Amino acid sequence: MNVAAESIIDTAVDANEKALQSNLLSPRFYTTDFDAVNRISVESWRSQWDEMMKEYEGDNNHDHFQRDAAFAGELEAAIPTWSPELRQELLDFFVSSLTSEFSGCILYNEIRKNIDNPDLKQLMTYMARDESRHAGFINMSLKDFNLGIDLGNLKRTKAYTYFAPKHIMYATYLSEKIGYARYITIYRQLERHPERRFHPIFRWFERWCNDEFRHGESFALIMRANPGLLSGLNVWQIRFFLLAVYATMYVRDHRRPLLHEAMGLDSTAYDMEVFRITNIITQQVFPIALDIDHPAFMKHLEKLVVIAQAYEAAKATKGLWGRLQQAWHGARAVGVFGRLYFLPVKSQALLDNPRLRPTW
């Protein structure tokens, strides 16, 4: 059963309400301790850091996020081939992706405005620039359907979640790297099967996800320059964020099975490929990796999908009984997540040089 149909996006009001949602599966907006960020040093990896800043300054994607002359024609030809269900899953994907990109733009810009650390200030300026382009580019595709998101209103009215700086590091690093793995896997699939490219935006995904890759590289260097973030009790927190990101992605992707089918992908196989790529990449910074081949790993992820379906069904039940059902399914999800958390993990030695290149 597909749970993506919890809300239909037919109007701009629907799209904007979807972007404003704050729940376990929706992208969030974040704030942090700016004074603590201001004290972060990258001096121990100075040469790699300066090299990376030159890459940002070069801005090799400055002309990328512009729609070419073929875009409108491709879109016009593709729309009649979409089923109503695929259309909804694509729109949901656009709204979720835009919200995630804009979340990064806001966070990086707020950090930039509230610190005077020259290294971090420069980085945040570049990253906010990139995420603004990404969000704006997706919004153009929503505006093709008169469903554009009011980004100013979204910034003012969406709820913000406080994360400590180290949690911002873990979560942002992972979101950027898994974002790369997601987009490059889609791009490579459609590169092999161009007849499956049912929206022209997918032609932009390779250089787009290379931005995400570089963003993750920046946070990898910050964490390697502050090794206390990667040892002791912090390893248990890294473990939590790894699992939270993987589990959220798995449940969210199984809400959009038609989106993957239209690309010639199976949602489960796609997610496992993304997990494998991300596990390889995170060896640059994390001393552990989730054992995604453990037989219980997939079993418990599937349970989370079933619980998510039951939770959405309970939301349609009014009154006390509906609230009790939601509470019960929420408790079930916590229990399954706990069992996933205590599955064995793989220890790994960090790479001598944390810098990687997007070669997938």
How would you summarize this macromolecular structure in one to three sentences?
This protein is mainly alpha-helical and 360 residues long. It is built from 14 helices and 4 strands. It has a two-stranded parallel ribbon with strand order 1-2. Strands 3-4 form a two-stranded antiparallel ribbon.
What does this 3D model show about the protein?
The protein has 360 residues and is mainly alpha-helical. It has a domain of 214 residues. Helix content is 65%, strand content 3%. It has 14 helices and four strands. The strands form two sheets. A two-stranded parallel sheet has the order 1-2. It is globular and about 55 Å long. The protein starts with 11 loop residues before the first helix and ends in a 13-residue tail after the last strand.
Keywords:
360 residues, mainly alpha, two-stranded parallel sheet, two-stranded antiparallel ribbon, 3% strand, globular, disordered N terminus
Q: What's the layout of helices and strands?
A:
Layout: H1 12-20, E1 29-31, H2 34-38, H3 46-58, H4 70-78, H5 84-114, H6 118-143, H7 151-157, E2 160-162, H8 165-192, H9 205-225, H10 234-253, H11 257-262, H12 267-281, E3 288-290, H13 295-315, H14 319-341, E4 345-347
